[in-house]
Amino acid sequence: MSPQDAPQHLIIVSGLSGGGKSTALNALEDLGYYCIDNLPASLLNELAPQIRAHPQLYARVALGIDARARGSDLESLPNWIESVQAQGIRCELLFLAAERRTLIKRFSETRRRHPLTQGDRVLADAIDDEARLLQPLKACATWVIDSTDTNIHQLRRKVWNCVGPGTKGMTVVLESFAFKHGVPQDVDFVFDVRNLPNPHWESELRDSTGLDSRVAEWLEQSPEVVRMADDILAFLRSWLPGFEAAQRSYVTVGIGCTGGRHRSVYLVERIAESLREDFPDVLVDHRETKK
Question: What is the reported pTM?
Fold first, then answer.
């Protein structure tokens, strides 16, 4: 059996600090991966047999490893990947990179400390040292994603684009957003639901989102909302099979309202629930609720 046909899939997620490793792991978790972050590389040999022994529980696993691992452990990682594949587990490496200027800006904005900074060591030197330390991993990576000038939503899509085709057919991404903050990039369809009744004007619902059952119940009282949900769902059920037949890896659908917190969020959740009957790999992303 070749590694590509293996029933279990293990992804090692590594890369430069500030490159988006946490975002990548969150995106993989949305794809159904069991995620473990900051795993010491020295524990990999102990973990592989556990994964192999529980194929149902650990059908998909993603491990986050960074430069804080010992140099010898990082150097042996490519050989470890080969040994895992020999055990019948498909094992691949996702590497997150970014330009130096972008990493410096991100650390400056978040005021986080780089893991390799010690004493009076400047940030730029720590970034350069980490890049040299992780170069062997980057060289053997299955996928290298450059997150320079990329926001977290775009990065999530890049991860889904890399990994999604190897999961369960075409991935459908439903994203809620606020028109006042702009239409998301790279969407295939955009639906404007600003004409629907707005829970924002109800004082007891204003601070909630479309994920709240009270908001859902309020919206479902409107025939317009129900009809909009049914019409969007019917449209997608009619046209998405054609995209899948054309070998598309994934399709992104944006649903927007004014603030991106009530109507669009509710509709994304409702439509996603129904659409999963036809497309098992449906992901949701609520852009404004994360701010």
Answer: 0.61
